[in-house]
Amino acid sequence: MNLAGRVAVVTGASQGIGRACALKLAQCGASVALVARNQQKLDEVTQEIAEAARAARAGGVPARAFATDVENEEQLKATFKAVVAEFGKIDILVNNAGITRDQLIMRMKRADWDAVLNTNLTSAYLCTQQAIGSMLKQRWGRIVNITSVFGQMGQAGQANYAASKAGLIGLTMAVAREIGSRNITCNAVAPGFIETAMTSSLSDEIRQSALTMIPLGRIGTALEVANCVAFLASEEAGYITGHVLNVNGGMLMG
Predict the structure, then answer these.
(1) pLDDT of 165-200, one tens digit each?
(2) Is 161 assigned a catalytic role?
(3) CA 137, CA 128: separation in Å to the nearest integer?
(4) Which of 18, 100, 120, 130 could share a disulfide with 13, CB 3.0–4.6 Å?
């Protein structure tokens, strides 16, 4: 999976799956624009990528941090213009930014519904819209949306999160049909239970209950998700589009 010469944008890149994706894409040779709200965490990931590049004696600019609120359309537009100004193009877009605001539907506040839909789904639409011009111009591109097993099977107390992730699957397939003729693919990766900051707060009871639903008998790692993202971003995945790749240890099959 050689991504030398490619430029990737990863949202939610400051931690968890987004961080792992940024590191993996950089390891495969891509220059990476890291997008998230937390400047300090972004700088830490950028530094990590730069140190790895120096160790490998790789040239060029391996990574840049762009502190951005993905809910803010004007900030996103400015960020994507800055990425193109810095790197000259965008080849790969990983829409990973996501939050949770869990509550039973009868008690869920509209503000929590809107925040999750705006961050998890609307930002993917906005980022795709901003990145696609560069991809169309060069007639090559890879868009990878990070959805969730709960967008496929639902989850009590997560109506907003499940709806946003299910929406990403629909967005993936619609975009794949629109841009396939321009040699641009659009796919989704659907993680199950993954060891991240988002899942670290789960109680032992919930974790043990989750393990009983996973045939492989363990929680996955962010790197295992990132490996799949790197594959879908590569030349090797050139004949795959509109696909949802499950990374869930067998939690959901079929």
Answers:
(1) 999 999 999 999 999 999 999 999 999 999 987 777
(2) yes
(3) 14
(4) 18
**Which listed residue (161, 168, 186, 251) is catalytic?**
161
Cβ(187)–Cβ(176) under 8 Å? yes
Q: Residue 52: exposed, middle, or buried by beta-carbon count in 10 A (0-12, 13-18, 19+)?
A: middle
CATH code of the domain occupying 7-247 = 3.40.50.720
190 vs 108, 118, 124, 148, 224, CA distance in Å? 25, 19, 15, 4, 12
- pTM check: above 0.85: yes
Residue 169 contacts residue 152 (beta carbons within 8 Å): yes
User: Domain residues of the chain, as ranges?
Assistant: 7-247
CA 130 to centroid of chain Cα atoms: 16
